[in-house]
């Protein structure tokens, strides 16, 4: 098992190699410079500028409202911060589903204007032409199957997908299709662990799971969720490594108190 050196930029090809060398892939989301810098310095392999920025950064209920311009803004900040990680950017809802030329134009804008290294699209056979056109233009594409949040109004809930045989079979076929089309990796969101294992064994590209069990080739979490900033969001798949909600509200409460009672600033904190 090879250890990929911290200083060397991770590429789409590196992730493929990691699957074949049985080295697990770590991915986290980031949307801003400050946190992306810490995430990159901590040795994560890939940073996803997810359209979950719509929820986490802007407070929307779904990922649907975020625009291409807003995604480019977040991606620019993350790219400026990262030295090592592969930076992957979500194509937002409405920028790739209608036709493949629009999809390519959206992907090209992200790559040109942000300097990111790859894009991610949600879906399988319905967006086959778009994926093909983007890959043919030389842009690495990460797929995303299972619970695809841009389709939430079709699903109706955020519950686990593909528990039934028919949907599981479709997912297996679409995973193979994305592999055949030339995607370099595949996110599997909220599907049974046994199905994720089957997909992982079947396809040649790495699977990166979120709520898809331990057999995936890698894992991804939303940074603010794993840091405990979004403290009311506690799905079963989430491991919370910190409780930053309590840490930050505690610090801010103390600051307010210090300002109110004249304890801040003290003599050493002024000129
Ligand atoms: O937008 C996002 O954060 C994602 C991950 C949940 C995979 O797509």
From TrEMBL:
Gene encoding the protein: panB
Cofactor(s), names only, from the UniProt record: Mg(2+)
InterPro entries, A to Z: Pantoate_hydroxy_MeTrfase, Pyrv/PenolPyrv_kinase-like_dom, Pyrv_kinase-like_dom_sf
Function: Catalyzes the reversible reaction in which hydroxymethyl group from 5,10-methylenetetrahydrofolate is transferred onto alpha-ketoisovalerate to form ketopantoate.
Coiled coil region boundaries: none
Binding positions (3-methyl-2-oxobutanoate): 51-52, 90, 120
Gene Ontology molecular functions: 3-methyl-2-oxobutanoate hydroxymethyltransferase activity; magnesium ion binding; methyltransferase activity
Keyword set includes Cytoplasm: yes
Binding sites annotated in the UniProt record for Mg(2+): 51, 90, 122
Any one cellular-component term (Gene Ontology): cytoplasm
Organism: Candidatus Ornithobacterium hominis
Enzyme class: transferase
Pathway info: Cofactor biosynthesis; (R)-pantothenate biosynthesis; (R)-pantoate from 3-methyl-2-oxobutanoate: step 1/2
Location in or out of the cell: Cytoplasm
Catalyzed reactions: (6R)-5,10-methylene-5,6,7,8-tetrahydrofolate + 3-methyl-2-oxobutanoate + H2O = 2-dehydropantoate + (6S)-5,6,7,8-tetrahydrofolate
Cofactor stoichiometry and binding remark: Binds 1 Mg(2+) ion per subunit.
Principal place of residence: cytoplasm
Methyltransferase as UniProt keyword: yes
EC number: 2.1.2.11
Keyword annotations of the record: Cytoplasm, Magnesium, Metal-binding, Methyltransferase, Pantothenate biosynthesis, Transferase
PANTHER family per record: 3-METHYL-2-OXOBUTANOATE HYDROXYMETHYLTRANSFERASE
GO BP: methylation; pantothenate biosynthetic process
Matches recorded under NCBIfam families: panB, PRK00311.1
Family: Belongs to the PanB family.
Active site: 189
Name used for this protein in its record: 3-methyl-2-oxobutanoate hydroxymethyltransferase
Assembly notes: Homodecamer; pentamer of dimers.
């Amino acid at each position: 098992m090879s250890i990929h050196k911290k200083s060397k930029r991770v590429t789409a090809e590196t992730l493929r190699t990691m699957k074949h060398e049985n080295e697990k892939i770590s991915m986290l989301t980031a949307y801003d410079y400050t946190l992306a810098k810490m995430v990159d310095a901590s040795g994560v392999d890939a940073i996803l500028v997810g359209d979950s920025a719509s929820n986490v950064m802007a407070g929307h209920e779904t990922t649907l409202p975020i625009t291409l311009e807003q995604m480019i803004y977040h991606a620019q900040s993350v790219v400026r911060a990262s030295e090592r990680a592969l930076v992957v950017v979500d194509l937002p809802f409405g920028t790739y589903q209608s036709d493949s030329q629009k999809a390519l134009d959206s992907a090209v804008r992200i790559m040109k204007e942000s300097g990111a290294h790859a894009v991610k699209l949600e879906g399988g056979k319905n967006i086959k032409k778009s994926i093909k056109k983007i890959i043919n233009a030389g842009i690495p594409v990460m797929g995303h199957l299972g619970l695809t949040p841009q389709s939430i109004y079709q699903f109706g809930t955020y519950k686990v997908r593909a528990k039934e045989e028919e949907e599981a079979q479709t997912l297996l076929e679409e995973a193979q299709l994305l592999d055949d089309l030339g995607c370099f990796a595949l996110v599997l969101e909220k599907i049974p662990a046994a199905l994720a294992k089957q997909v992982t064994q079947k396809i040649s590209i790495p699977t990166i799971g979120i709520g898809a069990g331990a057999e995936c080739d890698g894992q991804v979490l939303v940074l603010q969720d794993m840091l405990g900033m979004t403290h009311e969001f506690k799905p079963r798949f989430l491991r919370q490594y910190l409780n930053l909600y309590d840490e930050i509200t505690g610090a801010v409460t103390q600051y307010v108190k210090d300002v109110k009672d004249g304890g801040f600033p003290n003599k050493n904190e002024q000129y």
